[in-house]
Amino acid sequence: MNKDQILKKKIETYFLVPLVASFVLVLMCIGLFFIDSKCAAIASVFVAVVIAVEVVVYLFSRAGLMQTMLRFALEQGQIQKELLRELSVPYALLDTDGKVLWTNNKFIEQIGDGQKRIRKNIAAFFPTIDADMLRSEEEVSLELAYGDIQYNAHIKKIRFDDIFQDEGEVVNEDGQALIAMYLFDVTELNRYKRENIEQKLIAGLLYIDNYDEVMDNTEEVRHSLVEALVDRRINMYLATIDAIGKKVEKDKYLFVFPQKYLPQLKETKFAILDEVKSINVGNEIPITLSIGVGCETNSFAEAYEYARVAIGLALGRGGDQAVVKSGDQIAYYGGKSAGTEKTTRVRARVKAQAFKELLINKDTVLIMGHKRPDADSFGAAVGVYRLVKTLGKNAHIVIDSATGAIDPILKGFKGNSVYGDDMILTPADAMLKVDINTLVAVVDVNRPSLTVCEELLDLVRSVVVLDHHRETSEKIENATLSYIEPYASSACEMVAEMLQYIEEKVRIRPLEADAMYAGIVIDTDNFLSKTGVRTFEAAAYLRRSGADVVRVRKLFRSDFDSHRKLAEGVLNSEIYLDAFAISEVEAKDETEAPTIIAAKVANDLLDVDGIRASFVVTQKGDVVYISARSVDDVNVQVVMEQLGGGGHANIAGAQLKNCTTPLAILQIKELLQKMYQEGDL
């Protein structure tokens, strides 16, 4: 029953009620005849008159009243239709396929370009509206744009059976429907929102990485000129982004700029990083900068704190790069150079003393490196072991599984009565040693997920990190002492320096010196890669402590099968973009570390003239391992980070799970092509 029928019934009821009431009066008159006939006669006359009037009104006024009410209803409907047509909000009715059936004047004015009627599908005006939106039973809200106007659109399905039938009575079995669409102009609102976001202030910190080194290698009379040129270049750059900058120290700047310029900085990859390198007024070392930017925060104080975290990451990754921290997201820019070696040992001495002070109140030290330890990881652990034992504390090295990379060295320690059976522990045994006075020393790794036993980090109160790899967004959060030196060639070099600054004379045994010397040799590819003055000084210290060069070389001689695989890896390589060598090798066996041969092949490929970087892949199970090596003008660490890995500027790697060798090679090529075109290589 529709609304018109309901209204008609109500009007008829209104007319019939007096007639029913008159029937009661008739009964009253009948009753009066039994009491007083004269009174009954008089009452009957009056009741008859009333009934006659009611009948006349019902018969003659009913049609006129219905016409009047119908006319009123039509006028009301026309008014509503006219109001909808003149509504200032664009409104349209669509069929379920999206065809426009009816629109008001505002819709025609803004969307239909003034034409009298729109006969197109709504997708012709708004391509983002698809069939799923039109079929949805729920109201859909979305942002649309037509020309220069932006709309907040509301699309709602209106079924015929919801309009024309009462609850429980099915009239339209086909379930036909119309789509009502409202468009609210939010252009002005969005502009104000955008302006509010763009004018939000962002905090930034800018540090000169190698200020002291540059000044030490520049004539004193040119110091002021170098400083003035750097200041001018930085201030000019900050002026392009409408920034307010303040020099807070000789090599540190604080700057604030509107957020609208952040995309510009990202697009140009913080061009100031390369601009300052061109300053040359007698300085032998190029000037490099580190930049930290904090944004996407609720307060400026929080943005500044983010900037501090970002600059810390930039410095921890070797400098010469910009880091942007947006909430939980971190983006890296630059970092193409390998960085400048720090010649001062002040930091090593300070860290050594701090480590010693931490050990005063500790009884046991658990030392661990990364999973599948290599010579550098084990050698650094041995060095820390000797330092701890010299200070009279218990020390244990945690190893999950021995691989071919450390087997030759490890044999000298296992079963050796000098060290005892508890020098090497499994992760399970190490966790049983934990108490309130236990300290964990992490060497050659700073990412918790890559450590031998990540659970140990949560079980102890004190954690010390000694590493030479660049930091990433994943780091050991609860580290009491963190010594990360990306300029160092190896973790063994860092530990060797620290041993020399402990007040108690540390006497390294020849076997321990061999282990540490081997770590330096392996990580520097026989002192050919990432080798500085401090590297040779550390090697000289170990040599004086009893390290034997020939003995170390014999430890790492490989068998004939490994040499054959090495030759096959070089033979199967291909040159990509005339500068990058890409190859694949087969993993030796189940127990062998899969990257050993790959790393050797990558090192050998760098000896080819014109090769700037090499990438060698090997597969074990469903994991593909990538070993990347480069000459100093290509930062392979930046490349490997794009694949979820990391490392050094010249030595890096990555692991791709659920992948195959051909797919990994394809990903490497696509990434190199992209970075090469964008100028990142």
Alpha-beta content class: alpha/beta
- How would you characterize the largest beta sheet? 6 strands, mixed
Strand order in space, largest sheet? 7-8-6-9-10-11
Q: Please mark out the parts with pLDDT under 50 across 5 or more consecutive residues, or reply none.
A: 163-175
Q: Please state the CA-atom Rg, rounded to the nearest Å.
A: 42 Å
Give the overall shape.
Answer: elongated
Estimate the strand proportion. Answer: 15-25%
Q: Figure out the total of helices.
A: 24
Total count of strands: 23
Distance between the termini: 76 Å
Helix content: 40-55%
- Average pLDDT number: 82
What can you tell me about this protein's structure?
Helix 18 packs antiparallel against helix 19 and helix 21 crosses helix 22. The chain contains 24 helices and 23 strands. Mean pLDDT is 82; it is low at 163-175. With 681 residues, the protein is an alpha/beta fold. 43% of the residues lie in helices and 20% in strands. Strand 20 (613-620) and strand 21 (623-630) form a beta hairpin. The strands form four sheets. Strands 7-8-6-9-10-11 form a six-stranded mixed sheet. Strands 14-13-12-15-16-17 form a six-stranded parallel sheet. A six-stranded mixed sheet has the order 18-19-20-21-23-22, sandwiched between helices.
